[in-house]
């Protein structure tokens, strides 16, 4: 619609004469709120009408008008929290109540429920079950073969073998110096030949109980069953005389006992090459494995269980049983080395 300049000037003059509070844009083309904004405007109006009913005991009570549902009620609560925070309040102290005074739950404070993930049951694959059954069958065959071969060994031959294991405690300022605290010897059949605690002449700074199982009461002079280091050394030496000694990392046991044994009569499972493993790139130097791992692999039994202290008798029996598994091949290797040395001479 065309409006002339004269008409526009008259409209401006009329507006100037109106009071300030009545000045507004009365044109018909004034922007009207969109339909999708009506819900938001209603929420703003409701939020502005929130009543702070009570603020004693640092709790702010907000009365929720009737008829608010869904998004409008959620926006009302949100705006009310903002208003309280702007006035220096704490949003955690707000309580929303209905017109009747009943407290309503705050949706923001309700923890979101985690969706429970359905755990699928894992079943073993048929190939794994077959492989395990085959491995168990093979292990039984090997055990039966070892048993049959062991029965053929004369008792006089079996009597030559003795297994040794010792437990140590720590002495010195840092507790890293090992000192003998227990010595155990078993025969071919696992029968205990000697098992004794040993008195420690120096002050113990680390009992290593979690590994050795040694406690203060075991190595005190009040323990009548504990031997002196000298008596223990004499006893062990008498048992080992003319015997083949079996053990694992026997160097440590010899250091604690302060004694030695002929190299030709030592069968150390830590130094037997088929029991060792190479570490590093491209193979590398052979290094000994733990007695626990060897026992698990070759004997299918657990020793030195995590969280439990070691038992020198169990360790000595494990070393002897490991030797039995490879005895035939081990003795052949020794004989071939001796023949090679004799040829060089």
Automatic annotation (TrEMBL):
Region listing for Disordered, in residue ranges: 1-64, 95-125
Chief localisation class: nucleus
GO biological process: rRNA processing
UniProt KW Nuclease keyword: yes
Keywords: Exonuclease, Hydrolase, Nuclease, Nucleus, rRNA processing
UniProt key word Nucleus: yes
Signal peptide extent: none
Bias type Basic residues, positions: 1-18
Entry's localization field: Nucleus
Residues covered by the Exonuclease domain: 160-332
SUPFAM superfamilies linked: Ribonuclease H-like
Gene Ontology molecular function, alphabetical: 3'-5' exonuclease activity; nucleic acid binding
Highest taxon of the lineage: Eukaryota
Pfam family of the protein (one): RNase_T
Biased composition (Basic and acidic residues): 19-28
Matching InterPro entries: REX4_DEDDh_dom, REXO1/3/4-like, Ribonucl_H, RNaseH-like_sf, RNaseH_sf
GO CC entries: nucleus
UniProt similarity note: Belongs to the REXO4 family.
PANTHER family referenced in this protein's UniProt entry, alphabetically: RNA EXONUCLEASE 4 (PTHR12801:SF45), RNA EXONUCLEASE REXO1 / RECO3 FAMILY MEMBER-RELATED (PTHR12801)
Functional note: Exoribonuclease involved in ribosome biosynthesis. Involved in the processing of ITS1, the internal transcribed spacer localized between the 18S and 5.8S rRNAs.
Protein name: RNA exonuclease 4
Organism of origin: Ditylum brightwellii
